[in-house]
Amino acid sequence: MTREERQLREAIIAKCRWMNASSLNQGTSGNISARYEDRMLITPSATPYDAMKPEMIAAMPIARDDGSWEGPLQPSTEWRFHLDIMRGRPDVGSVVHTHSTYATVLAIARKPIPACHYMMAAFGGNDIRCAGYARYGTAELSELALAALEGRNGCLLANHGMIAVGANLDKAMWLAVELETIARQYYLSLALGSPHILSEAEIADTAKGFSTYGLQQPKASKPKPGRAGASAKAAARQRVEKKRSRT
């Protein structure tokens, strides 16, 4: 195991522990995967996060879909949709699956989330779809999840939970948090009545703004005090020296 791979395995475990400590997930119901070269690293099945060690993370070849794996423990029972997402979405470097409370409540009600907040733009469209129901760990569930994720970075799973995907582990976890946050906001706004939903144009405008969000423009350098005057004096001295050399 290379140092880079070990660090990624340790990061997966750290994210698992954090999402439980932050109540984004409960027990061992969630699972996380990350792309490493030609393999997918994924949390093992039914293993408490506090007891998890880097060597316990299962490794699965992305090119194969027969469920083959390496490691002392079997991969998560949800390995199928993790692997299929990695195979079908080269842009995805990590997948986070949780049973977060508000996202799961909406999934139980089979309610997709409309553009109730401008942060919906971070998910690639103007809604979060709710995939149909299929038993956990099945190829059918994977197919339903892939359809719900088309053009999106997150979805709900009917009567189950949610999925968030990102270019890397940090981005996928950030989107998982955002998805649960939007789910909570939508749920609470429904309690007040009919929430106002943003238009496709408004979400598209936000997405355009995201393309430059966080890019810092370098400040124009200011001349140091006295610098301009010193340059002028130096030029004057040069002119005087030239005149003297001619005489």
Automatic annotation (TrEMBL):
<dbReference type="GO" id="GO:0019323">
    <property type="term" value="P:pentose catabolic process"/>
</dbReference>
<keyword id="KW-0456">Lyase</keyword>
<dbReference type="GO" id="GO:0016832">
    <property type="term" value="F:aldehyde-lyase activity"/>
</dbReference>
<dbReference type="InterPro" id="IPR050197">
    <property type="entry name" value="Aldolase_class_II_sugar_metab"/>
</dbReference>
<dbReference type="Pfam" id="PF00596">
    <property type="entry name" value="Aldolase_II"/>
</dbReference>
<feature type="domain" description="Class II aldolase/adducin N-terminal">
    <location>
        <begin position="10"/>
        <end position="187"/>
    </location>
</feature>
<dbReference type="InterPro" id="IPR001303">
    <property type="entry name" value="Aldolase_II/adducin_N"/>
</dbReference>
<dbReference type="GO" id="GO:0046872">
    <property type="term" value="F:metal ion binding"/>
</dbReference>
<keyword id="KW-0479">Metal-binding</keyword>
<dbReference type="InterPro" id="IPR036409">
    <property type="entry name" value="Aldolase_II/adducin_N_sf"/>
</dbReference>
<feature type="compositionally biased region" description="Low complexity">
    <location>
        <begin position="226"/>
        <end position="237"/>
    </location>
</feature>
<dbReference type="GO" id="GO:0005829">
    <property type="term" value="C:cytosol"/>
</dbReference>
<protein>
    <submittedName>
        <fullName>Class II aldolase</fullName>
    </submittedName>
</protein>
<feature type="region of interest" description="Disordered">
    <location>
        <begin position="214"/>
        <end position="247"/>
    </location>
</feature>
